[in-house]
C-alpha cells in the first residue's frame, strides 16, 4: 500500500523546474543511503573533462527519470485512457527512480576491465539486505521482486517495462535533456511536453499517434546530435581510455603481487573481482578519485604516469583516420615498443563500428523496444518504416576511426615510426 | 563612403538580444518611410490565425537578417580570412537589411492572384525615386544598382549573393529563429553561434568546415520541422486560401463592373493590375484588413461571406487524404454545385507535391546556392553527398493531401454528395 | 451549465508553452467575433516603435490571463483548499478571458481625448446584443451580469474579483511575462510557478504564505523594472503623445467644420463622441492606422504633419530635466509661438508625478486589492509592512521630467528661445 | 610578453555559451595541475544537499570569471575608452582566472575550524614553487607578484582590483548567474549584457552611467534573492554545520590522542594546523568525502554518527524563531545534556545578525569597493544615495533565527526539555 504524503514534497530541478513527490514510498526511497550514494557518482563519467559543466550526478538524473515517468502516468490518468493499467503506477515510479542504483564510479571504464554489470548490481541492491529493499517491502512485499523484474526487462507487461526502457523511455528523455543542459549543448534538447502529448497506451504498448511522428523525429535527432557531439567526443573517449588503462595496469600489478602503498577495503574486492555489497556501496567516485591521486605516487612508472595524466588532464592526443586495418595497428605497436613505450597502456584505436552507438534502429528489437506509430487505420507501424529521417539516423555517418596515443612521448620518434605512420598520427610537422 | 555613427546604436531584440548599428547609412535606411512601412506587414501572413503569437512584422525580421549578416562578416573580419572581400561589407549589410522591402501585405495570397512579385518591387524601390534610394546614393552612387543586383542574385560575386540568398543564408537563419520564437515552437531553433563558428569564406564561396556537418544537419532539421509544423499547417493554409478567394472574387467582380461601396486609391490599382509606387507603399496590411472589414458588408454574397470568414476566423475545415485524383475533385465540384455552393470560391485542394517546400535539396542549384562542405583534403563537396540525414530531409514524408471546404454549409449535403465523398470529407457522422 | 469539450483543445503559446481549453463555453467565447477582434488591437499600443518586437495583440494576452487563472484555480482544486469556492470556476475563467474585450485601438491616446473607457465598453459588450453575451447566457442566464460585475469589481466575493484584478492578479502576471517576452526585456520576468506555489485562498482572500514573501518581492521588482524600462520609455511616450495630438487636432477640425477628404463610419461616431456598439467593434487598429495614412494627406498642415510623423516614426525628441515649473512651460510655449509653431500640438511635458505609475503601494487599497501575507500566527499582514523592498519600490526613484518637442523645427530657434531654454532642450550646440 | 594562440580555443559553457581563450598564458594556466585541481572542489560546498543540481565546481566558475572579465575588457577596448589602462589586460585576465585557486574543500566549514584562509593560499600558490607560478613568470617575471597583489587587493590601481573584487565585479557576476543556472533558481539571473553596456572606466574607477541605475538595481536584487533563497537556505546551513562539527570533533579527538583507524597524509597536516603546499593540493573534496566515509566507521560514537549523517543526508532539523537570547541557548544546552546529548556537537544556533550577508551596503567600503554612478553632471555618486531600492536591500528583512538539532534524538525528550522549549523546537506534537 502506498500512502500519500501529508504535504507534497518538491525538489527544485533545473531541467524540469520542479520534481514532485506525493508518495511516502518514493520519499523514503530517496532518503535511503543507497540512493543518496548516487550523489557521488557522476552521470557522464569523464565527460566533464571535455564539457566542464557536465559535473552532474546520477542522483539528479534518477530524480529526473522518476519525474518524467510521473508526468507520463499523470497524463495517462488525466485522459482516462482505458489501456493504461492504473494499478502499476507505484511500480513504475519506483522502477524509474531506482533503475540506476547499481551504477558504480566511471562505469564505462570500470565495467569493461572487471566485468561488473550495473544492472545486475541494481537488482542485487533491490533484492538484497538494503534500506531500499526494506522501504519497498514495507509498501508491498512483492514490490522488490517486481521492481527488479521491470529493471531487468523480464516483467510480464511490456507497457511497464517500456516506460523505463525502450526507445522512447523516461530514462532517455531525462538524460538527453539533462546532459544537454549541463554540457550547454542546447541543440540536444527536444520538446518534452510535445512528446507527452503524442504518446498513449494502446493494447499493451506505449504508442505514438500518427500526427506525432515529427515530434519523435525531433527527439531522435537530438539523440543523434548528443551521441556525435557529446557522448563520443574524442576528448571524452581519451579520458575514458586512460582510466581503463589505469585499472588494467592496477589489475595486472595486483596479479603480479605488486606491493601497493595504497590499497584499502573495496579496492581489494575490486581487484580480486569479488566485491561484497558493502564494498560496492563504498566504492563511489570520491574513492576512485582519491585512489588515483594516491596511485599517482606508486612506484610502478606506468601506473603512476597514467594516474597523474588522469588527475591533471594530460590526456592522449588523437588522430582521425578514414580507413584503418590490422596491419597499421601492428606496425604502430611495434614502433612504439621500439621507442620504449608499452602499447598495451599507451595506444588505443577506436573503430567506428565498435562505438556503443545507441541510436534508434528498427532492427534492434531484441535489445530495446521499438517505437510504434498508431496510424490512421488504427494499426501499429514501426516508426522507421514511415520516416526516411529516422531510417537515415540509424547508420554511421561519415565518421572516422580514432587513434589515441601520448603525442608528447612520440615527438622525437623518427627512428621508431615510419614517415607514413608519423603522417597518420599528425606528427610529421 | 560610409561614415561610422558617433555612438553605436542598439535595438533590443528578443531573438538576437541586441541589434547593433554602427554605420550611418544603415541607420538612415532604417529611418526611411519605405523601411518603416515594413512594420505594417506581418512576417508570417495569416499564420497568426494558427499560432496566435506569430504577429511579428517584416520590420523585425529585416533587422534580424541585417544583424545575422553583420555577425557573420564581423566573424570573418576578426579571423582575418583572406578569402573574404572586405570592401563588400556595406553592400552586404544594406542588401541584408533591404532584401524584403518590396513585400506587400499577405504576399502569399495576393501575389498568386495579381501576379505581383515582391522581389521585383524590392528592386523598383531600391532603384526608384525613394528615400531608400537617396540614402544609398549618398553613400555611393553605385550602391543602389549593386544592392538591387545582390537581391536579384545577378551580382558578380557569389560570396556576396550567398550571404543573402543561399541554402544557409542570413535570411533563413533569422526567420527560422524568429518564427520559432514568436510561434513558441521551440523545436524550430538551432544554435546560431555554432553555425557562425563552422562557416568561412573559401575561394569565392561560403563553405562549412567538415567538422561542422552535424551543425548544418541540425539547422536543416529545424527548417524541416518549421515547414511541416508551422509553414504548412493546414489552419494557416485554410486562412491563406480564404484570403486568396477574397481577392479572386474581388477581381472578378471588378471585371464584371460590380459597384463597390468601398474602393479607394491603391485598391483600384491592385484590381487593375497597374499599381504605382505610391499605391504600392500605401497598400499595407492595415489597408487590406480594413478593406476586408468594409467588404464584409458588400452586397455580393460570396465576397461578403468570404471577408467575414477571414475577419472572424470562421475558416474552411480540411480533410486529409492519402490519395487523390482528378476524378474525386470533379465529383466534389459537381456535388457542391448541386448543393448551390460555388466550388470556385469554396473548394480547394492542396496537392502535397505542389507545396512550396523549400527544404534543402542538392539538386536545386539553379534556384538557390547549395551548401558546400570543405573536406579533410580541402576539396568542396555538396553536403548532401556526405550526410544521409540531409538527403532524407529532401523528400516528402508520409504527408497527406488536404481538401478545404466550408463544413457547416455541407452538414446536410446527403442529397448532393455521395456517401463515399461524405466519408472522405469526414462528414459521415 | 458548462459542458466539457469532447477533447481538450490546445493553443501553442510562447509564454505559457500551451494554453488548455476544457470547457465548451470558453471555446465558444474565443470564437466570437468580439473576441477575435482583439487580434486587431495591440497589447502595448505604440511601444513597438521603441521595442520592435512588441507587436503582440490583446488576443494573445487575453488567452494568457485565462491560462494563468486556470492554473491558479487548478492548483487550488488539486490541493483541495476548503476556502476556495469551487462553484465560481467558470465565472472566473470567463471573466479572465473577457476582461479586456472592450479595449479599443491605442487606448492610452484615444481614451484621453474622447473620454471613452474600455472597462465600460467591456461591460457593454458583455451585457449587450453580442455573440459573447449569447454564449455566456447559454451557459447560465446570470453569467453575463456576473462577469460584468467581476470585471467592474462590484461582484460580492473579493476572492473572485481579486483573481482578475488585484495587486497579484492573473492580468498582471500574464502581461508582465508576455511584454517581457515580446520586447526581449528578460529582466521583466519572474517565476510564475513559484508564485503559484505560495498563494492560496484564505477566508475570502487570496493570500501569500509567509515563506513566499521573497517570491512576491521578485514579482514586484519585475513590475518596477517593466514600468521604468518599458512602459514609461520616453520614445514610447513620444509616439503616444503624437497620436494624442493627432486626435486632438482631428476633433478640433471636426468641431470647426473642416472638410475631411477621408472620414467614414465609426470615425464620425468617434469625433462626435457617440459611437454605437457596431462602430466600436469596427474601430480596430487597422482602421486607425489606415485613417492616419489617409489623414497624412489632409489639407490641414498640422494634422497631416502629425500623421506623417506617426506613420514614418519621425517622433518628437525629448529633453530630461531634474526640475521644472509652470514658468518654464509658459516661456517655452511663448517661444514656440514666436517661431511659428503651435505649442498645443508640438509641445508636451511629462511631469514625473503624473505618470500612471501602477507599482505596488500599500495605501491604494481603494483602487486595487493589496497583497496579504499570512504570517506564522495565521494572521493577515499587508505585505509592505513586512518588506523594506516592497516599500521602497513604491516611490519615484530619481526619475526626471521630460519635455517633448520637434527638435528639427527648432534647429534655428535662437531668435525665439532664450539661451537658457535652448540649453534645457539640448539645442545649444 | 603574452603570445596569441595560433588558433583561438573555445570551451562550451552552459552559462556564457562559449568561453574564448586567445592568450597562450591563459591556456597554459588552465592546464596547470593547480588549476585542474579546482575540478575537485565544488563551487557551492554542501548546497547540493538542498539543490541537487548544484554540483558544479570552482573550475567552471573560475573559467566564467575569466570570461566575464574578458568581455568587460573587450568592451572597454572596442569603445576605445581613454581611461582604460590597456597594458593591464593580461594581468586582469590572469587574476580573474586564478582568484579562487587557493580554495580548499568545503571552505566554509573547514576554514572556520582550522583557521585556514583561501585567499592566503591563493597567494602562496601564485608566488610559490608551482606550475602556475612558472607559467606566469614565463610571461613576465613580475606577473606572479602583481597577480597576488590584485587578488589581495593591494595592487596600486583600483580599476584593476575592482574588476576582480568590488561590489560589481566579474567574480560576483559569474557566480550569481552560474549558481542560478545550476540550482535552477532562475530568479537569480540578471542581464549580463545590459550591465556590460552601462559600465565604463572613469578616472581610475569602474563606474555606471546614470541611465544604468535600474540595471544595477536588478543585479543587486538578484544577489539579494540568491542570498535568501540559496546561500542561506537552512538545509544547506544544516549540512555545513554538521560538516563543521565533524572537523571540530576530529580535531578534538586528535588533540586527545584518539587512535584513528584512518588518518593519512594531508589529514595529519590539517589536524595539526601545518599543511605543506603539497598537502594542500592533495586535500580536495574527494579526499574529504572519502575520509568522511572512513570515519563513519571510527570507534568514537560522535564522530562516526556525524559522518554518517553527512554521508546519508540525515541532517539536523531546524526551528525558526523570531527572537532568541542567551538564556534560551543555555537552557537548551542544559536540557540536551540531561538527555545525554552533547550540545557542543548537536546544537547550533544561527543568529540572523551573524550571517555572512554579503549584500550591497554603501558603508562597507573598507571591505569591498562600492558602486559609483556617474551622474548627469559627470560627478560620481555612491549608488545607494540615488536608489531607495538599493538602500532597502541592505538590511535584514523579516528573517528569523534558526536552531539546528537532531530532532529524532529528541523525540522523547519530555523529561529533559521544558514544554516551552519543546514548543520552540516544534517537538510538541
From TrEMBL, chains A, B, C, D:
SMART domains assigned: HDc (SM00471)
Pfam families registered for this protein in UniProt: HD (PF01966), HD_assoc_2 (PF19276)
Record-linked InterPro entries: dGTPase-like, HD/PDEase_dom, HD_assoc_2, HD_domain
GO molecular function, one term: dGTPase activity
Residue ranges annotated for the HD domain, each copy included: 58-176
PROSITE patterns: HD
GO biological process: dGTP catabolic process
Protein name: HD domain-containing protein
The organism of origin for this protein: Paenibacillus hemerocallicola
Amino acid at each position: 500500500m502506498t500512502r500519500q504524503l501529508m504535504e507534497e514534497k518538491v525538489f527544485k530541478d533545473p531541467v524540469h523546474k520542479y520534481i514532485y513527490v506525493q508518495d511516502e514510498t518514493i520519499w523514503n526511497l530517496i532518503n535511503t543511503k543507497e540512493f543518496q550514494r548516487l550523489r557521488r557518482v557522476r552521470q557522464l563519467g569523464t565527460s566533464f573533462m571535455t564539457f566542464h559543466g557536465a559535473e552532474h550526478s546520477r542522483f539528479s538524473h534518477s530524480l529526473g527519470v522518476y519525474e518524467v515517468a510521473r508526468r507520463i502516468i499523470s497524463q495517462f490518468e488525466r485522459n482516462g485512457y482505458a489501456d493504461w493499467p492504473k494499478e502499476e503506477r507505484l511500480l513504475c515510479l519506483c522502477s524509474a527512480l531506482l533503475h540506476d542504483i547499481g551504477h558504480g564510479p566511471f562505469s564505462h571504464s570500470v565495467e569493461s576491465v572487471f566485468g561488473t554489470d550495473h544492472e545486475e548490481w541494481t537488482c542485487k541492491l533491490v533484492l538484497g539486505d538494503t534500506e531500499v529493499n526494506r522501504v519497498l517491502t514495507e509498501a508491498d512485499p512483492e514490490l522488490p521482486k517486481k521492481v527488479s523484474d521491470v529493471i531487468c526487462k523480464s516483467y510480464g507487461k511490456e507497457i511497464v517495462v517500456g516506460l523505463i526502457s525502450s526507445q522512447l523511455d523516461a530514462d532517455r528523455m531525462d538524460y538527453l535533456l539533462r546532459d544537454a543542459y549541463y554540457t550547454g549543448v542546447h541543440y540536444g534538447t527536444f520538446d518534452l511536453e510535445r512528446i507527452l502529448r503524442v504518446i498513449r497506451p494502446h493494447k499493451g504498448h506505449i504508442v505514438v499517434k500518427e500526427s506525432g511522428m515529427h515530434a519523435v523525429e525531433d527527439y531522435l535527432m537530438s539523440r543523434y546530435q548528443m551521441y556525435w557531439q557529446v557522448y563520443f567526443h574524442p576528448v571524452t573517449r581519451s579520458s575514458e581510455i586512460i582510466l581503463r588503462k589505469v585499472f588494467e595496469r592496477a589489475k595486472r600489478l595486483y596479479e603480479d603481487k605488486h606491493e601497493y602503498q595504497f590499497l584499502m577495503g573495496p579496492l581489494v574486492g575490486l581487484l580480486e573481482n569479488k566485491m561484497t555489497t558493502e564494498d560496492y556501496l563504498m566504492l563511489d567516485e570520491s574513492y576512485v578519485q582519491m585512489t588515483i591521486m594516491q596511485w599517482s605516487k606508486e612506484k610502478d612508472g606506468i601506473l603512476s604516469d597514467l594516474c597523474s595524466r588522469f588527475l591533471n588532464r594530460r590526456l592522449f592526443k588523437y588522430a582521425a583516420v578514414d580507413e584503418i586495418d590490422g596491419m597499421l595497428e601492428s606496425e604502430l605497436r611495434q614502433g612504439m615498443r621500439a621507442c620504449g613505450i608499452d602499447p598495451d597502456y599507451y595506444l588505443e584505436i577506436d573503430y567506428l563500428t565498435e562505438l556503443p552507438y545507441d541510436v534508434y534502429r528498427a532492427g534492434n528489437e531484441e535489445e530495446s523496444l521499438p517505437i510504434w506509430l498508431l496510424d490512421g487505420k488504427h494499426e501499429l507501424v514501426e516508426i522507421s518504416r514511415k520516416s526516411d529521417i529516422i531510417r537515415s539516423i540509424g547508420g554511421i555517418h561519415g565518421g572516422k576511426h580514432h587513434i589515441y596515443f601520448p603525442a608528447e612521448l612520440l615527438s622525437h620518434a623518427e627512428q621508431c615510426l615510419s614517415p607514413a605512420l608519423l603522417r597518420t598520427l599528425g606528427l610529421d610537422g
